[in-house]
């Protein structure tokens, strides 16, 4: 019996494919806007959503999506009050979300264990989770396609986009929900603690190739697929959490690309 014969591994591969496509699509806009730490903040916010979902006997992925969307919208709202202090906004939202998560988890009122969401687990992906992933991914990708030109404009020059008539505020709120979607569908496989690595590291690796925007996005997805699939399969045989090992693979691939780039530069 091969590894592909197990239903839990089939579920994990299904979810991983969508994660590896959606995360770089979201991550490239965060990285270009120098907002990669927002991904880290919202990934921690998702734990509070998971805790709320488990406490209320609701699907934890749905809970993560709703709470993370609220936190993403809160970040955009606070930007008008702390325009020059983005790091302070992230600290406020991080304090709110982590405080909520710890309070709920330590209360003993959870109807399930939240540990698998911290580190990621291929055993906990259910059929309903797969449906949630499919729906959220489809909506997110279609929204990205529809808003593609405006989001590129905003990523490179937000002020110029406002002058050109782009509805920057509205699109930023929509983008916050897209980030929440990417995080909530990734949480079961990757885990909260290293989720932001899947949003930023494949993009960081692709940027080293020095290509245009579209090719950078394509290579980001390629690197993301390599990172997640290697992390998933090797972690299964090593019997370790897939999230942490996937993060190590992501760093290793980035270092390999950097070394290759350095060697080529030296030879030239």
How would you sum up this structure, described in words?
- The chain has 268 residues and is an all-alpha fold.
- It has a single domain, classed as ABC transporter involved in vitamin B12 uptake, BtuC.
- It is built from 12 helices and no strands.
- It has helices at 7-32, 36-55, 60-79, 86-106, 115-119, 127-146, 148-156, 158-163, 168-190, 195-207, 213-238, 242-267.
- The longest helix is centred in the first third of the chain and has 26 residues, at 7-32.
- The chain is globular, with a radius of gyration of 18 Å.
Secondary-structure map:
Elements: H1 7-32, H2 36-55, H3 60-79, H4 86-106, H5 115-119, H6 127-146, H7 148-156, H8 158-163, H9 168-190, H10 195-207, H11 213-238, H12 242-267
Structure keywords:
268 residues, mainly alpha, ABC transporter involved in vitamin B12 uptake, BtuC, 80% helix, membrane, ABC_TroCD
Classify the beta-strand content into a percent band: under 5%
Radius of gyration: 18 Å
Biggest sheet statistics: none
CATH topology: ABC transporter involved in vitamin B12 uptake, BtuC
- State the secondary-structure class: mainly alpha
Number of DSSP-assigned strands: 0
Elements, N to C (H/E): HHHHHHHHHHHH
Shape type: globular
Q: What's the overall average pLDDT, rounded?
A: 82
Q: Percentage of helical residues?
A: over 70%
Give the total of domains: 1
CATH homology superfamily: ABC transporter involved in vitamin B12 uptake, BtuC
From the N-terminal CA to the C-terminal CA, the straight-line distance is 50 Å
- The number of helical segments is 12
CATH structural architecture: Orthogonal Bundle
Top CATH class: Mainly Alpha
* Low-confidence residue ranges: none
């Amino acid at each position: 019996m091969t590894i592909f014969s197990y239903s839990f591994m089939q579920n994990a591969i299904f979810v991983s494919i969508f994660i590896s496509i959606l995360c770089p699509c979201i991550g490239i806009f965060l990285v270009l806007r120098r907002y990669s730490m927002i991904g880290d903040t919202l990934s921690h916010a998702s734990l509070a959503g998971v805790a709320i979902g488990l406490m209320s006997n609701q699907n934890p992925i749905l809970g993560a999506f709703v709470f993370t969307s609220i936190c993403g919208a809160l970040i955009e709202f606070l930007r008008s009050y702390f325009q020059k202090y983005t790091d302070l906004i992230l600290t406020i939202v991080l304090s709110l979300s982590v405080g909520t998560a710890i309070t709920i988890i330590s209360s003993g009122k959870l109807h399930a264990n939240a540990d698998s969401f911290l580190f990621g687990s291929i055993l906990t992906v259910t059929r309903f989770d797969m449906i949630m992933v499919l729906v959220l991914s489809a909506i997110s990708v279609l929204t990205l396609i529809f808003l593609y030109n405006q989001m590129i404009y905003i990523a490179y020059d937000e002020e110029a986009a406002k002058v050109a008539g782009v509805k920057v505020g509205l699109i930023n709120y929509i983008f916050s929900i897209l980030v929440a979607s990417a995080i909530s569908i990734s949480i079961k496989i990757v885990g909260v603690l290293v989720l932001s690595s899947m949003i930023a590291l494949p993009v960081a690796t692709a940027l080293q190739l020095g290509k245009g925007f579209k090719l950078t996005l394509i290579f980001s997805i390629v690197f993301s697929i390599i990172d997640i699939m290697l992390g998933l399969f090797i972690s299964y045989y090593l019997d370790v959490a897939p999230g942490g090992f996937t993060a190590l693979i992501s760093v290793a691939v980035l270092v390999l690309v950097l070394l290759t780039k350095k060697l080529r530069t030296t030879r030239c």
